[in-house]
Amino acid sequence: MLIKIHKKSDPLSSEITNESVYKARRDFIRTSSTLALGGLTGLGALTASLDTHAVTSQDTHPGKKLSNYKEKVRTVDEPLTPFKDVTHYNNFYEFSTDKEEPAIVARDFNPHPWSIKVEGEVAKPGTYQLEDFIKPHTLEERIYRFRCVEAWSMVIPWVGIPLASIIKRFEPTSKAKFVEMVTLYDPQRMPGQKRAVLDWPYLEGLRMDEAMHPLTILAVGLYGVELPNQNGAPLRLVVPWKYGFKNIKSIVSLRFTEQEPINTWQATNSREYGFYANVNPEVDHPRWSQARERRIGEFLKRKTLKFNGYEEEVAPLYASMDLRKFF
Ligand code: MTE
Fold first, then answer.
1. Most C-beta atoms within 10 A of its C-beta, which of 8, 40, 84, 236?
2. Cβ count within 10 A of residue 291
3. 31: CB partners within 8 A, 6+ apart
4. Which residue, by CA, sits nearest to atom 9 of ligand 1?
5. pTM to 2 decimal places
6. What are the pLDDT digits (tens) for 215-263?
7. Ligand 1 pocket residue status of 183, Cβ below 6 Å
8. Which of 97, 113, 82, 81 is nearest to 2 (CA)?
9. Of 266, 214, 250, which Cα lies nearest the Cα of 74?
């Protein structure tokens, strides 16, 4: 168990994440966990930093600088969330259910060497070393809004590759309707997996047209450096119009399927988390409103935008669907 010492000046995480939301999600995990509660005392995010400094030597693994990427291929007219907050206010249950602990617990995780398995309905299945997986592509900086289902948000400058160009290389067959992605399962290296808080390994999926959408990327970095471990090194999904939990971290496989995958949060509680998970201020989470959000670093809440502000580009994907039904 990790015992934290509070500084009086530290804001409570409940001041950042709406308190009722923070408590509700924490309580849900408490009651649904099959483990003894004694093992879960690290759950509450007791402190959080809202410092606004850029990368410093105190930050865990500031990461190798990425070079040769196209800058600002996409951007938004909103201030970036400081590096410190992007890398110290995380959801990465493989390391901890606390928001600040992933930066500490994942500090010594070594994401190299890393391989990615491509399987299922593709003409060119195989296992690829990360370097070979990435090499044929040009890295792009994409500055996107990021909205967690817990009603907080950030603006993050990712560096990555359009998922569409990766997928095309493997030549999906006509049967490929979905792509399923899985996180590394290695409880020795990801100690949070020793606890049954989720059904490991973490799994997510997209419909093929969502995966091929030009906004969807696989990120290898942020703020111009390699992805910090707590943000999903060495490879994670970024789908900016969906809630954060769709953005699966530390991916080890892509499987192309005919069947819609059941993602981890849906398997955990299908009443509250669905497959589509498109950001929608008009459809509340059963236990809290999604109409507004707290941008990390800001005091007042702001209105949540439909599809997180990407409506014009992605609404056509869902033209035939009743979005209230398919949360
Ligand atoms: N991926 C894995 N493997 N494990 C996780 O716990 N958490 C998800 C998502 N991807 C998660 C994950 C949730 S709930 C969110 S909000 C985002 O990662 C958080 O990403 P960040 O920590 O980089 O902000």
1. 236
2. 14
3. none
4. 245
5. 0.86
6. 999 999 999 999 999 999 999 999 999 999 999 999 999 999 999 999 9
7. yes
8. 97
9. 214
